[in-house]
Amino acid sequence: MPEFKILKKHSHSQARLGILKTAHGDIETPAFMPVGTLATVKALTPEELTQCGAQIILGNTYHLYLRPGHELIADLGGLHKFMNWPHPILTDSGGFQIFSLGALVKITEEGARFQSHIDGSPHFISPEKAIEIQQALGADIIMTLDEPTPHSADKLTTEKSLRLSLAWAKRCKVAHGKSDTQSLFGIVQGGMHKAMRKVSAEGTVEIGFPGYAIGGLSVGEEKDLMYEIANYTAPLLPDDQPRYLMGVGTPEDLLQCSGMGIDMFDCVMPTRNARNGSLFTREGKLNIKNARFTRDERPIDPACDCYTCKNYSRAYLRHLFQANEILALRLNSVHNTAFYQNWMRAIRLAIREDRPFDFSWQAITVDD
């Protein structure tokens, strides 16, 4: 069973420096997980991910269940072997993806009936099925099946949903049983309502898991509200177990929420932005499509030591992007992925040295 240990607490915030031990390696926390939805972090090889500093990646139960299928992956040795990633993997349960199908899904107490977004074929995933799929994939950390709610949902709708998520969490725990290699995390829902967050957190903790996720945030609500709910929810979770904020976020989000005592994060932003020509620097975002970079011989970020910044100029990267060359997406993704890992390393160092978080990131485009 994966183990979590807090190594140091930050005197300037609620941040914690920790280590999460798994069968496929140790994870220093706070940590950011690149998203590898379909058993690949888009445009990057596993070796490049390692070079960028990634310690753990995320895969998605819903997508891998539909294609190529969890049974096939199990037959081929599990997700680690299938994608040649020897380090830790977390799989989410697919609840958010199923919820996002809208009219294509019907939720009952038994589970979720839905049509595939690929070919319209009918499917049913229960809490037990979600665990079966994730056990077949062989991830180090797996998640309970939950039903997220829209950020605009009222209290009655939110309470009904979180009660269903709690019932599903109990069934997931029973289905999972005991494992020496795989850890099942519970998910706290409750929308934008603090009272519902408290009910969900207390109920999830009562069931008992070795780690807890805060779900249902960064789904369209205002940034200040996201911070408020995350800051309220984190202390409701056990102090000695990992806390995971799902689907968040920008570098500033990671800094702010690490300071709230959150240990793990994931988001598609680094690689998605890279594929759109939006690159992260310590000063803000850089739009490589901008004509001002046509003759710019500087790297994306002079302070960055990634492969892209050590070898290529802004002028070359702009040329590749404007020419629709695949290499542009790869080199941009290397940089953004490395930037996020370096950002988390800086956060961990500040906690280790007990310094204030005296650095920040502005969500601006520096070349506008």
Compact description:
The chain has helices at residues 46-52, 61-66, 70-75, 79-83, 95-99, 127-137, 155-176, 194-207, 223-233, 251-258, 269-275, 307-311, 314-322, 326-352, and strands spanning 3-9, 16-22, 25-29, 31-34, 57-60, 89-92, 105-107, 112-115, 122-125, 141-143, 183-188, 212-214, 243-245, 264-267, 278-281, 284-287. It has 368 residues and is of the alpha/beta class. The strands form 4 sheets. Strands 4-14-13-12-11-10-6-5 form an 8-stranded parallel beta sheet.
Describe the structure.
The protein has 2 domains: 264 residues, TIM Barrel, CATH 3.20.20; 79 residues, no CATH class. Helix content is 39%, strand content 19%. It contains 14 helices and 16 strands. It starts with a strand and ends in a 16-residue tail after the last helix.
CATH superfamily of the largest domain: Queuine tRNA-ribosyltransferase-like
Residues in β-strands, percent? 15-25%
The H/E string reads EEEEHEHHHEHEEEHEHEHEHEHEHEEHHH
Number of helices: 14
Gyration radius (Cα, Å) is: 20 Å
Would you count the extended β strands for me? 16
Architecture per CATH nomenclature, i.e. the level-2 architecture of the largest domain: Alpha-Beta Barrel
Tell me the span between the first and last alpha carbons: 49 Å
Write the layout of secondary structure elements.
Layout: E1 3-9, E2 16-22, E3 25-29, E4 31-34, H1 46-52, E5 57-60, H2 61-66, H3 70-75, H4 79-83, E6 89-92, H5 95-99, E7 105-107, E8 112-115, E9 122-125, H6 127-137, E10 141-143, H7 155-176, E11 183-188, H8 194-207, E12 212-214, H9 223-233, E13 243-245, H10 251-258, E14 264-267, H11 269-275, E15 278-281, E16 284-287, H12 307-311, H13 314-322, H14 326-352
Parallel strand pairs: 4-14, 5-6, 6-10, 10-11, 11-12, 12-13, 13-14
Antiparallel strand pairs: 1-2, 2-3, 7-8, 8-9, 15-16
